[in-house]
Write a structure and sequence with these properties.
Strand content: 15-25%
Number of strands: 9
Distance between the termini: 10 Å
Helix content: 25-40%
CATH superfamily of the largest domain: Dihydrofolate Reductase, subunit A
Shape: globular
CATH class of the largest domain: Alpha Beta
Radius of gyration: 17 Å
Strand order of the largest sheet: 5-4-3-2-6-1-7-9-8
Structural class: alpha/beta
Length: 213
Amino acid sequence: MSAFGPYVVVHVAVSVDGATTGFAPDIGRFYELARTWHEDVTLTGADTILAQEPALEAQPGPGPSDDGPLLAVVDSRHRVRAWRALRDAGYWSSVVALRSRLGWARGDDGAASVEELVLGDDRVDLGAALDALGKRGAKVVRVDSGGTLTGALLRSGLLDEISLLVHPCLSGSRGVESVERRWYGTGPPPSSTLSLAGAEAFDDGVVWLRYRC
């Protein structure tokens, strides 16, 4: 947990072998369970948004959701472009870009269209980002992103809870690609003892595991 106290939880759908790809997750159940935390902020990475940009831009949304959380996007290098589409998607109340100083200096994406927080030199300082979000009143931050961001948070000791929606299958991935698509990203996760906070099995074999860090 950061100094100003937002509770940080990562919620991710995985196969039994820890992969986030190579299988069809139960998306409806995933987001139904995600509502458990009533997050103030959804934290995601640029790669996750970039994968969704074509669909976002092709389907104009209803506009900001007054009751939705803030979307915070870690975008050190100014790669994201679909800020207006994100803001209008109907899921979030507003959007903020988390930048590094180097990326901010080189950025040319029309950043005036989105609020920015510049934190860190060559990459976003995730601890400082969480502190900044806490100062804005965020009590709960839910990470909805790929392994790169999740792994960085985990290795920095910035996660309070890990929620795994384990699907009864093996991803079938092999080699380097399978490692890169683990929920904790590349490299081994840090050695740590976790405390079981909850476990629930569903009739279709999916198991929901929650651990406190």
